Amino acid sequence: MLKHLKTMPAIKWHLLCALLLPLLFNGCAAIHPIKGIPAQYLPMEYKGEVRSGKETIDLSLLRQPAPKHYLLDSGDVLGVYIEGVLGQFKDVPPVHFPQTQEVAPSLGYPIPIREDGTISLPLIGTVFARGLTLTQLEETIRRKYTSEKKILREGRDRILISLQKPRSYRVLVIRQENANDIVGTTVGNLNVGRSKRGTGRVINLPAYNNDVLHALAETGGLPGLDAENSIYIIRGAAHQMNHSICPQPIQTGSANPNNDGNRQQIQQVSDTYTPIPQSSPLPSDTAFQVGQPLYSSDGGFYSGDFMAPTVINDSTMQRSGIIKIPIRLSPGEQVHLTQNDIILHDGDVVFIESRDTEIFYTGGLLGGGQYTLPRDYDLDILGAISIAQASQNGSNTKSNGGPSALNQDVTISASNAIILRQLPNGTQLPIKVDLYEAVRHPSQRVLIQPGDYVILQYTKSEAIAAFVERHLLEGALFGLAASNLQGGGGGR
User: Fold this and answer.
1) Which positions fall inside the Polysaccharide export protein N-terminal domain (predicted)?
2) What is the per-residue pLDDT across 200-214, written as a single tens digit (0 to 9) for each?
3) 31 with 459: CB under 8 angstroms?
4) d(CA 325, CA 232)
């Protein structure tokens, strides 16, 4: 009996060694740790972009200023009634009731303004209308029928000009950020299986509402959290053929022809004036050319000369000629937008791109996972681990790495995190973070960047302690409880 008792410690020792040997030789990460640069020695150029602190730009920069009076241009449909010419004497003028309440009912026969900015009327021929107000055009037509052509008696004419249908611009808006069906798990921010279908709409924007802000308002507002903080404007072919999106007011007799201070100001109509025909009036900002990029390749504002290339070598959204408008700006950052940048034309495309590639991955004791980075604020290593652990706790599975590394309680868990960061040259940079030090010193909380791989692993001492706690201690407590139950049953 005594000999049997002496052999018991040896048996337990051999049993302990048998249990620890697999831990040492099965490729445990604690025995073969990943080496990396300590977080406190990480160079500034590898710390990545800061997302926090940005503010939304002034939304009025995305809207064009409307003139005091409506200026006519090609695409407008006028209501014209000229008694004795377009309509017989003593006849009631035809009345047009529009389908929308935004336009008032009008009198007269429909006369569209042609592409060259003119209208054609009986007996007098072509009349230039582009850039005129309705009052100015009516006075021009009256003068031609009375004093110039002597067709109607001056003072007894009945000429009515009204706007029957204002012009509109057909724009395509493609928004890629809308997430419809989600297949698979939806725990936390895990985005595996997310289906991005997006939306696409063709909208008609009325004159002086044909800008980026109104296009966004018609299609769902500003880009969502799963979209980039930028709006892309792809110019259509119609923009190169028609520059008169915001026609300039015609100079009248009371205007100063040398005053170029405010070219969008409406001139007062004088009693006698002569419209100045303009075959192709230019936009107010002639410094900007069609196809000129808003930003240069280094991110600065492009101020030099630009000539549209005959061959497009870059087929991506970064090619020249596509305007990129940022929505949020860092403190002190300025955005350079002209009126031509935000005004939309027939055939233009407004594109909002999703940010599916802004994700980070987890591995090791955190388990495999793929998570979306926040768009408007920074996520450090502690936040990334919290997100991953929250998804594990919510999936009814036992977590290998508990929260003790963050809460500093008595439970054994990993305190060693490795961030594998992809560099532009194709290599990767391992960054080592001590979670206990990161809790005490916020400067060591490395910010997570798109494409980072976060691996949580034990140190050698933590691995042995966790193994003993989770296997030997749990087994010993279970055996003790079973023996107590058996002993209690035998006593009865």
Assistant:
1) 65-148
2) 999 999 999 999 999
3) no
4) 6
Report pTM. Answer: 0.67
Rounded to the nearest angstrom, the gap between the alpha carbon of residue 181 and the centroid of all alpha carbons in its chain is 20
CA distance 150 to 254: 26
Are residues 172 and 154 part of one domain? no
- pLDDT per position as a tens digit, 318-374: 777 899 999 999 888 888 889 899 999 999 999 999 888 889 999 988 888 899 899
What is the total count of domains within the chain? 3
Q: Which domain holds residue 161?
A: 71-165
What one-character-per-residue DSSP string does 185-220 give?
A: --STTB-TTEEE--EEEEEEEETT--BHHHHHHHTT
* Strand partners for 120: 126
Q: Examine residue 3 and state whether it is found in any structural domain, yes or no.
A: no
Residue count of the chain, please give it: 492
Least confident of 188-197, 232-241, 264-273: 264-273
The answer to whether residues 339 and 224 belong to one domain is: yes
Strand 194-196, strand 179-182: pairing: antiparallel
Q: How far is CA 15 from the centre of its chain?
A: 61
CATH label of the domain that carries residue 457: 3.10.560
Q: Are residues 442 and 396 in the same domain?
A: yes
3-state SS string for 32-95: CCCCCEEHHHCCHHHCCCCCCCCEECCHHHHCCCCCCCCCCCCCCEEEEEECCCECCCCCCCCE
The SS3 of residue 387 is: helix
> Which of residues 120, 144, 165 is at a domain's end?
165
Q: Which residues contact 175 (CB under 8 A, 6 or more apart)?
A: 198, 199, 200, 219, 220, 223, 227, 352
Q: Are residues 412 and 461 in the same domain?
A: yes
Task: Report yes or no on 301 lying in a domain.
Answer: no
Helix residue ranges per DSSP H, 103-218: 134-143, 212-218
Selection from 244, 243, 265 nearest residue 254 by Cα = 265
Report yes or no: 85 and 125 within 8 Å, Cβ to Cβ.
no
CATH of the domain at 145: 3.30.1950.10
Query: What sections of 333-380 are H helices per DSSP?
Result: 339-342
